[in-house]
Q: What sequence folds into this?
């Protein structure tokens, strides 16, 4: 299977829905490509006893069917999907906690540009697209989805509709003490259940709303007053596409957190990483069936978002700020442009939900448990296409031996030690663990740096560090995925390279 570069440029334009991103020479060249097609841009009981924790993956959640392109038949499926991930609750976690795997920044039939730009044909939800989303959430064993539909559509539906409630499918609603809907549980055919909460992505990205805000314009107004009002409506107020905004723009808003990774930053033709990414992705396209398994195609485009990480460092040096990965899935990449060797569309809900996720340490598997973990900063970004975070642990031990989990904020004192246990690395692969200390610098010369980021410990395995000064301490883990070599085919030599695997949220020592 081969593809001409101009058509692949079209694919990237369709995948990227960032209309206000800065222009670049690469973008201008791509924009001039003929025939370019663009994609449009709790209060409830724990459910641990209600869901089968040892259930096998849903067998009925097969990859969604792909409509034939107008001028060509679909490629015959020659590769089965990679196995779904295990139940996150089976992964080794710190005492008293369970891992919850989930997505933040997710679009459904209530976004105008989802489902190939036709989310509600005839005014009704696009049934095949909605079925794809539900099947993906079940097969990928998601514990939660924080939906973030665009306000143009989201503001016109009830929260019951917003959380995709289907009583006939066995879904249940989550209500607050007054009986208002604040979320739902999506029911899977095998008994698995996925927590779903309403939210929106406009100029701000409020998640886990408990009630509609007083004015829908708040979604589209990037201002401190909007953040405060959305928080008053029960939301955690995040920001998407951090790479498009400066620290100076985001700092005054009073955000709870923002994205430190979004796939669009890697492939947006109007952003800075495309010149680095494009040759590798073209190589994957041209390799066809001799190249990587389609479920690993992301490895060609995956790059860290340095601008978002830099902004995050500047924030956490000064105040607590949650860092998350935004999935931003729309299932709206024109399927006629490129069909991987398995016959499934590149941007299917199923495929994209297996690439990376936000793994939370929860005390209970409920919407309240999810919110508590996010509020406390007990969140890891994990690119689990490289492997699950089994055994991952990050904490500070004080002089008495008391444990302070990731997200904790405490005063500097003698005898503090940071301990980090990395995930169990897949056999044959290696990893690079780096403990970073981020500190704010005193105002210096105009244009000089205002934040210092130091690697204070580095190892190929566990790390222990005696805290010697205040700072925001966080960990980055990169993996060289030798265990994927066979599945990467002819491009193993290109794609078996150090790749980001885990970002922790900080421990704050002040």
A:
């Amino acid at each position: 299977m081969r593809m001409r570069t101009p058509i692949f440029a079209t694919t990237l334009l369709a995948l990227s829905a960032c209309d206000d991103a800065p222009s670049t020479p690469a973008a201008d060249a791509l924009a001039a490509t003929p025939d370019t097609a663009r994609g449009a841009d709790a209060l409830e009981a724990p459910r641990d006893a209600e869901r089968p924790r040892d259930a096998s993956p849903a067998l009925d959640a097969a990859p969604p069917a792909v409509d034939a392109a107008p001028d060509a038949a679909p490629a015959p499926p020659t590769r089965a999907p990679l196995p779904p991930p295990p139940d996150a609750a089976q992964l080794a976690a710190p005492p008293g906690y369970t891992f919850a795997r989930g997505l933040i920044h997710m679009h459904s039939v209530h976004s105008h540009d989802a489902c190939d730009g036709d989310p509600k044909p005839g005014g009704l939800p696009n049934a095949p697209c909605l079925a794809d989303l539900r099947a993906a959430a079940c097969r990928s064993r998601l514990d939660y989805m924080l939906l973030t539909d665009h306000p143009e559509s989201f503001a016109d539906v009830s929260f019951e509709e917003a959380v995709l409630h289907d009583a006939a499918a066995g879904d249940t609603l989550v209500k607050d003490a007054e009986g208002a809907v604040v979320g739902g549980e999506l029911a899977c055919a095998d008994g698995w259940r996925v927590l779903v909460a309403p939210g929106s992505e406009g100029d701000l990205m409020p998640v886990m709303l408990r009630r509609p805000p007083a004015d829908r314009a708040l979604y589209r107004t990037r201002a401190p007053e909007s953040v405060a009002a959305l928080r008053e409506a029960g939301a955690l107020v995040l920001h998407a596409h951090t790479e498009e905004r400066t620290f100076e723009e985001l700092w005054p808003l009073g955000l709870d957190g923002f994205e430190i990774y979004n796939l669009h930053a890697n492939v947006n033709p109007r952003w800075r990483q495309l010149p680095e990414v494009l040759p590798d992705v073209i190589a994957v396209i041209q390799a066809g069936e001799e190249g990587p398994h389609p479920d690993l195609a992301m490895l060609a485009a995956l790059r860290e978002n340095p601008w978002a990480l830099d902004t995050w460092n500047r924030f956490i040096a000064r105040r607590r700020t949650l860092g998350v990965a935004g999935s931003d899935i729309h299932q709206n990449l024109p399927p006629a442009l490129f069909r991987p060797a398995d016959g499934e569309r590149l941007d299917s809900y199923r495929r994209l939900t297996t690439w990376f996720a936000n793994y939370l340490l929860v005390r209970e598997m409920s919407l309240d448990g999810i919110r508590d973990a996010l509020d406390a900063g007990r969140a890891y970004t994990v690119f689990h296409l490289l492997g699950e975070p089994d055994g991952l642990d990050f904490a500070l031990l004080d002089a008495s031996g008391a444990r302070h989990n990731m997200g904790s904020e405490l005063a500097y004192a003698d005898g503090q030690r940071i301990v980090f246990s990395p995930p169990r690395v897949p056999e044959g692969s290696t990893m690079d663990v780096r403990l970073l200390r981020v500190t704010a610098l005193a105002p210096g010369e105009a244009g000089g740096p205002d934040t210092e980021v130091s690697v204070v410990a580095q190892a190929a395995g566990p790390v222990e560090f005696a805290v010697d000064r205040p700072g925001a301490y966080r960990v980055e883990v990169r993996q060289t995925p030798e265990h994927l070599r066979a599945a990467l085919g002819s491009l193993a030599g290109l794609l078996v390279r150090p790749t980001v695997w885990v970002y922790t949220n900080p421990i704050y020592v002040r």
Observations:
- The first strand starts at residue 98 and ends at 106.
- The radius of gyration is 22 Å.
- Confidence is low (pLDDT under 50) at residues 1-77.
- The CA atoms of residues 329 and 439 lie 34 Å apart.
